[in-house]
Each structure stands twice: as C-alpha cells, then as structure tokens.
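Hello support,

Our group uses your service weekly, and this is the first time we've seen a run hang past the timeout. The protein is Heme-binding domain-containing protein. I'm not sure whether the cause is the sequence or the server load. Input pasted verbatim:
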Amino acid sequence: MILSTALSLVHPWGNLRAYARADRPKLTGAVVPPEVRQVLETKCVDCHSESTHWPVYSNFAPASWFMEHDVSEAREHFNMSRWEEYSRESQVDLLTRIGAEARSGEMPLKHYLLLHPGAKLTSEDQQMIYEWTRAERKRVKSQVSEQK
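Update from on-call engineer: The timeout came from a worker crash unrelated to the input. Re-ran successfully.
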C-alpha cells in the first residue's frame, strides 16, 4: 500500500489534475441542443474535458497511471473544454469523427465501460449525437465558407 501511494505521485503523462479547470465551459461556440449536451456531460465529459471526475481508485498506482493515460489520450483527440481553440476546419474534422465513433459504438472505450457501465451510449444516444454532429458540421462549414 505504501509503494502504491508513493508511486501515485508519479505522473508519466503529466499531472492532469494540476491544471484542470472543472468550471470551464464545454463546447463554447458550438450549438448543442440540451438533450445532446446532457448525454455528452454524463457520458463523455470524464475523459474528453477538464472536468474529469477522479474516482477513489484513481489515486493509487498503477490504476492512476491507466486512468491518467486514457484521459490524456482522450483530451489529445478531443477536449470539450477547449473547443473554441480548435480551428473551424479542425472542428469539422472532429465532428465527423465524433459522429462516426459514437454511431459505430467505438466510444466509449470497452475497457472504460467495464468500470463505468452507465457511460454506455444507448442506440438513441448514438443517433442523437450523430445527428447533432451532422447539423453542427454543416453549420461550422457554412461559417468557413463565409470567411473565404
């Protein structure tokens, strides 16, 4: 137990908790219907934002390392807390990937669902996210066209 606690002070992917801002708004600038925002907030935000809820087991190595790695990777791919920092072209690409991965069931990751079964997207959630990403992608693309 002492070794696990000591090793928990090691953060191979950086100390994600140190600079996170849980109060930071998510998807700033995006048009997100309330029902879609609710799904994203309850099922995606833990990994894809700076509002990660760190369960007790995440304080002890090696579980802390696995969780920090997964959250680091997820934020690298898509961070809802930094949406406004992505270029419009990047937002279009991200929306394409989000819709495809949600619809195909690639997200959330299977190993995440083992400990968080409530994060599983229902077929309704998948369809709702897919339809939102299509509409939002179209909206963002029109803004890109207007800028040219």
